[in-house]
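Quarterly update from the structural biology core.
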Amino acid sequence: MRRNNEAKCSIEMKEVELVTALSRQLDMTPHDVLDTLSTFYSLIGQTISEGGSVNISGVGQFEIKKKRERLSVNPVNKKKYLIPPKITPVFKPAPSWRNYLKKLDENE
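Predicted structure, tokenized:
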């Protein structure tokens, strides 16, 4: 019996496993796949750092979100702190992925 706090899916793919799987399926050396992925990551990072977004059809959209300056209160000592604005990377999955995950959740 599974408890509510346990993960529903225990499959995890790390970068090494991803590179190995891609190299087999694409008939490329792991080194070439790693170089390709590294370039892919760099292009996404460069584009979003310049304020742009990267939209990959069927996968999703990578973009940045600018969080405004805000006030926070420490619940223990009730002191107020000013949290400075910051920029964070955001990934929005494509509707096809969201629908797929929704169906998986309904089947559980």
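The two ends are 13 Å apart (CA to CA).
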